[in-house]
Amino acid sequence: MKGGAFLLQNGPNRLYKATFYTSITLIWSKI
Questions:
Q1: What's the number of CA atoms in the CB half-sphere (13 Å) around residue 24?
Q2: pTM above 0.70, yes or no
Q3: How far apart are CA 8 and CA 31, in angstroms?
Q4: Domain boundaries in the chain?
């Protein structure tokens, strides 16, 4: 996802948040 990639490039501090949102995105994709 572009949003996830943007967060990753923003900085390592947001890596945890990016991973969290990625998990939610995967769940939403399943629904």
A1: 8
A2: no
A3: 25
A4: 1-31
